[in-house]
Write the structure tokens for this entry.
Amino acid sequence: MIIAIDGPAGSGKSTVAKGLAERLGFTYLDSGAMYRAFTWKVSSSGVGFSDKEGVYKLLADTSIRIECSADGSEVFVDDVDVTREIRHPSVTENIHHISSLEFVRKKMVELQRDFARGKDIVAEGRDMCSVVFQDADKKIYMDADIKERAKRRHSELGTLAGEGSLDNLIEGIAQRDHRDSTREHAPLKREPDALYLDTTSLDAEDVVDILIKEIQKEQQKN
Ligand code: DC
């Protein structure tokens, strides 16, 4: 069974996807971690983000491995553990250079489908419903008010350097929303067959409870 969850930054999808995977005994897939991993590799390699040919060559030479559990994701680039490094604000700021490239997305889609093969999974990202798992058993689009999303990001980033003020976070999230939803390839969008959930006034456990009921309905149908 494949459960696909999309939504903007801070909509609660990571916490909910992990909680859901744990409750259902499914494997959790954090697709954003893969884009973060390659962005980290590009910035640490000295290849410029605008050097598409250099980025293309680097991608062919890069192995990305992800081990996701309900505790989170462990991410390895060329067998180096970069789990912590990929959450750094400099990766978040530069990721759009990488996630907008069609050849990068093609490779990530392959990696994500390979990861899911033969497993029951809860996958979260921006194009899980629209591209990667178009035939998912359940599609979900999670959203929340931007101020609430910034507050969530703020508490998540608390221990990392350079997190900035709440106003800076709101500005950064608005910019990222705009980039993610207007890019040419696989933009973030709400699919007509996805269940829409506004999580502004819900905590993650409430959302997991709602989704478990929805998934049980789906399982009864099959
Ligand atoms: O979910 P996240 O914040 O870790 O994602 C980081 C960035 O990666 C986000 O700005 C957009 C991009 N991303 C994407 O383009 N497609 C996905 N399936 C997941 C993430």
User: Anything to note?
Assistant: The chain has nine helices and eight strands.
